[in-house]
Amino acid sequence: MSSSLGVAVIGAGMAGKAHAAAYRAATTLYRPVLPEIRLVSIADAYEPLARETAARYGFSRFDTDWRAVAADPEIDIVSVVVANSLHREIVEGLLAAGKHVLCEKPLSDSLEDARAMATAAGAAAERGLIARVGFSYLRAPGIEFIRTLIDDGRLGELLHFSGRYWTDYGCRPDAPISWRYQGPAGSGALGDVGSHLSYLAEYLCGPVAEVSGGRFHTSITERPKPLGQVVGHTRGNVSEERAPVTNDDYATFNASFARCVGTLQVSRVAAGHPNDLTLEVFGSRGAARWSQTNPGQVQVMLHDEQGDVAGYRTVALGPAHPHYVGGWAMDAPGVGIGQNDLFVHQARAFIEEVAGIPTAESLPRCRSFADGVHNIEFLAAVAESAALGGATVPVTAQEH
Ligand SMILES: NC(=O)c1ccc[n+]([C@@H]2O[C@H](COP(=O)([O-])OP(=O)(O)OC[C@H]3O[C@@H](n4cnc5c(N)ncnc54)[C@H](O)[C@@H]3O)[C@@H](O)[C@H]2O)c1
């Protein structure tokens, strides 16, 4: 195992700060004890944010150009947490410079770029470098517990999946234009939050075979230009000038998975639902549902409890559930789980792999760039279905 690893985060926006905080906390959880993590640099093109984030999270310095991170031999591990269209150039540059890379989802905003990144990752792997994509919700204990209920047969044969990821960051017409609103069809709500929902659906229901009923809608077709820096979903003073929104505010589609069929729906204009990822699986022996609005609970319904008390019961996640023990400083049931914790567990898993800790002693590994490409192929099939008026479009099986 390496004695110490130097870390940098590129992008100090909404998710960049979550990565920075995660690297700080990752060494405090689970076993075995990790090597020393040196928090070296936060790089953001917007200098005030880079400076403040480095100071806030205890990183030794800040940079305003990712190339300074690439050139620094003290840095081993880099998270890439910038707009999706920028992932390729930065990731390829970092891999060429010999860094292990954890890239945010979706791997890119285009299939062509994502495939090129996977090729670069394959070449880098031959030099011992690890490139992974941040499918952070796979770290949610509630998702893992539902997967357990499916795998051990307690839900029976899967019959039907329903998933939605509703957000409301774009529900106000005065929310300023940002990279999130500009890109090809399918790079809006679908690429932003549908990327999460689609890998979760496959994790529970098996590989997707085809999609149909694709439908996109842009509800707010132009937005004001910001007068200052936009970070994440922040609003602020905006100009009189407006810019067109070129991608989807809303997307819906059907999908056929190996284990069942399902409907999936995403939105960034669902007022009152700031971060509502909710999914439900129905089986021949019962059902289960989980929501990011209350991620410390799973609701379970089992047919063998039929009678006058049949119905969903609420299960509080705790030490009886997967990856719970040791996963929080206070790992008692009921202490609460949040989305930020998932980034900590993800950072821990990435460090474990880079540090050479065997799979059997580690959290589940982060997903590969090939998985990231497959995720975009899935979303591209939805875009094709939408372009063809809802036609059925096959999704290529994933190569491993
Ligand atoms: N896993 C999750 O739950 C989750 C949540 C939010 C975002 N994300 C992903 O994280 C990525 C970033 O999203 P965000 O919401 O943090 O974006 P953001 O707009 O809040 O932040 C992006 C930051 O990148 C900086 N930047 C722009 N160009 C740069 C460059 N060339 N070099 C260095 N910095 C540059 C900007 O100044 C900004 O501070 C996206 O891929 C997004 O899909 C993931």
UniProtKB/TrEMBL annotation:
This is Putative dehydrogenase. Residues 146-288 form the GFO/IDH/MocA-like oxidoreductase domain. The keyword NAD applies. The keyword NAD applies. SUPFAM superfamilies: Glyceraldehyde-3-phosphate dehydrogenase-like, C-terminal domain, NAD(P)-binding Rossmann-fold domains. It comes from Leucobacter luti. One of its GO terms (molecular function) is nucleotide binding. Residues 6-122 form the Gfo/Idh/MocA-like oxidoreductase N-terminal domain. It comes from the Bacteria. Keywords: NAD, Oxidoreductase. Gene3D superfamilies: Dihydrodipicolinate Reductase, domain 2, NAD(P)-binding Rossmann-like Domain. Signal peptide: none annotated.
